Amino acid sequence: MLPLRLLRSAPSHPPTHSHSHRIFQPSSSLLLSFQRTYLGRTDKFKPPDPNQTYTPVVESADEFRFVDRLLGRDVVPKIPEKSLKEYPTPSGWIPPAPVPPQLPYFIARTRFHNLPVYLHVVEHSTRKLTQVAKVQGDIWMLEKELVHFLRQHAFDGLVASQVSEVNRWIRIKGNYVEQVKEFLLAKGF
């Protein structure tokens, strides 16, 4: 931003006239022109008017139910009872077993009660990776059992996998989404 007061630099030789050290002070019209040009508005830096009235705020608990519908859920809602009677549903969804399996590992469902098994396609490539997320407990034992199960579905009997203990997921090279879901449903997840 340009300074509003400009000082004339002192000359190296002694002044010959008396007005050589004047301070430049712009006129009000020049200042307004500067503010319009470089700041956009002249009233931009005015303090707020203390007499200005604001719109009152009303807190309504009755209307918050409309907002609550839009917020994400932190807890998985219960499975509707009617869906437990007839499954698999037309979409192929199957609920988890009523009693969790007694295994050293556990796979939590997503907030929509789906199995956390995803297919990742590497960008600009034909490489596909199957990922099992939300693994709790002994992730290495799950990986060992999963690879053993998938060997019968692999083309050459080789299954490459990667385990991330910190992020709690297992990646398998190839598209094995349906086979992994079949494995997890057979285990009771």
TrEMBL record:
Keywords: Mitochondrion, Ribonucleoprotein, Ribosomal protein
Coiled-coil ranges from the UniProt annotation: none
InterPro entries membership: Ribosomal_mL49
Source organism of the structure: Hypsibius exemplaris
Compartment(s): Mitochondrion
Family the UniProt entry places it in: Belongs to the mitochondrion-specific ribosomal protein mL49 family.
GO molecular function ontology, one term from the record: structural constituent of ribosome
Stated name of the protein: Large ribosomal subunit protein mL49
Primary localization: mitochondrion
Any single Pfam family the record assigns to this protein: Img2
GO cellular component entries: mitochondrial large ribosomal subunit
GO biological process: translation
